[in-house]
Design a protein that fits this description.
- This protein starts with 11 loop residues before the first strand and ends with a helix.
- By secondary structure, it is α/β, with parallel strands linked by helices.
- It is built from 10 helices and 12 strands.
- Helix 8 (261-267) packs across helix 9 (281-292).
- The longest helix has 23 residues, at 234-256.
- Strands 1-2-3-4-5-6-7 form a 7-stranded mixed sheet. Strands 8-9-10-11-12 form a 5-stranded mixed sheet, covered by helices on one side.
- The structure holds zinc ion.
């Protein structure tokens, strides 16, 4: 399982008893996590994509000398942030109501296994899934929904430390939440921030995502942990916000010209964002954006097939 660990083995301390668990590899499925500790209370922000990856995370927490996790927050419903939930049976699992509602429907593990079967390789979607997800071991994953849900803002008391959860979705997904740890000047952004590769937007609209970047900046945090990629400062958030605005403007123009969403995604000039990998993710972002602009909603299977075709045609 070469890809499955993403080069991630330890916690990095960003502030007092505040840690990031960072994957050195970017790409699909390598999601960062966070840990906040006070006394016997340990908050984990996001689990991992598979059970072996989540066990590796638990080992890293243990190796750092921390007690077992008492609370889990899922930043959103995507499997790479939540499919390890079942390994924390005694923890309170917290997420937004929208995340809890979409979690059972978010690309179920059984569908992933089916796309990874040899029959599926006759379609671009099947070949793309095998290319990017074939090294992950989804065996045994049981989608495990939150035990506590909220809307708007929720303050957690972690052993006397204040941790603020703020719902900023729908943006990347239905129910995105950012987590601010004021006493450490750290914000865990989940997939509201991608610091490597193109981001993918499943839900949107992009205006909400741009506003969510402003919410990160409003925390005043100096260390921002993205869902994918390295830790950045506020300038990294501003750079990403400008990317989103560039994409929103370029897609709106092409929508008004009648260009199909999958063509618009690959036609958009990337300028300073040319170096980012996984350009085909713009196909999904374009499909969601076109829907917000008035086009019919595109079924997820079609989005995946168009995205995969864009990848193989550009290769
Ligand atoms: Zn993610």
């Amino acid at each position: 399982m070469g890809l499955s660990d993403g080069g991630c083995t330890k916690l990095d301390e960003l502030g007092p008893d505040t840690y990031a668990y960072l994957h050195s590899d970017s790409g699909w499925g390598h999601s960062n996590a966070g840990v906040v500790r006070a006394g016997d209370a340990v908050l984990l922000i996001d689990t991992q994509y598979t059970l072996p990856m989540t066990r590796q995370l638990i080992t890293a927490i243990d190796d750092a000398g921390l007690p077992p996790v008492t609370t889990v927050v899922n930043t959103h419903a995507n499997g790479d942030h939540a499919w390890g939930n079942q390994l924390f049976p005694s923890a309170d699992i917290v997420a937004s109501v929208a995340t809890a509602q979409s979690m059972p429907h978010d690309f179920p593990p059984a569908l992933m296994q089916r796309l990874l079967s040899s029959d599926a390789a006759t379609t671009a979607a099947g070949r793309y899934t095998q290319l990017h997800f074939g090294a992950f071991d989804f065996d045994g994953v049981l989608v495990t929904t939150p035990t506590t849900t909220f809307t708007g803002t929720m303050c957690l008391d972690i052993g006397g430390r204040e941790v603020v959860l703020r719902e900023v979705g729908p943006a990347h997904s239905d129910g995105d939440v950012i987590i601010h740890v004021p006493d450490a000047d750290v914000c865990f952004a989940g997939d509201i921030l991608f610091a490597a590769d193109h981001p993918v937007m499943w839900c949107g609209p992009l205006e909400n995502w741009i506003a969510a970047c402003d919410s990160i900046l409003e925390t005043g945090a100096t260390h921002i942990v993205p869902g994918h990629g390295p830790v950045v400062g506020p300038d990294g958030v501003r750079y990403f916000r400008a990317y989103l605005q560039h994409v929103a403007d370029g897609l709106a123009l092409r929508f008004s010209q009648g260009m199909p969403y999958w063509e618009a995604a690959m036609d958009l000039p990337l300028g300073p964002y040319r170096h980012l990998a996984l350009r085909e993710r713009l196909v999904a972002t374009a499909a969601a954006t076109y829907h917000h602009l008035g086009a019919p909603k595109v079924p997820p299977a079609e989005v995946l097939e168009r995205m995969a075709q864009a990848h193989f045609n550009a290769a």
